[in-house]
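A quick aside before the break. I want you to see a complete sequence-to-structure record at least once, exactly as it would be stored in a machine-readable document. Don't worry about memorizing anything.
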Amino acid sequence: MICSAHAADDLVLQTVTGRVTAVLGKDQIMARLGGDEFAILMPGPIDPAAASKLAESILEALNAKSDSLGANHRINEHRYRALSRRRL
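That is the input. The structure line, written in tokens, reads:
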């Protein structure tokens, strides 16, 4: 059972990574913080509107249906907000 659970975890991580990186711009970076936690780095000046737009695109990508996860599984998100280096 442990092997199949690890395989399922790997599939979810690969699916999340693929979906998120598909919507990122060439200067944006996705970083895995640990476990199932990720951060998106957007270089340049702070632009809350651009960050919100990107977040909505990511959520749409995560909520897309996929046969790879099976019919009874979906990806959920939890939002953390950081708009400045001081708040990180």
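Two observations worth writing down. The first strand starts at residue 29 and ends at 34. Helices lie at 2-23, 48-63. We'll return to this after the break.
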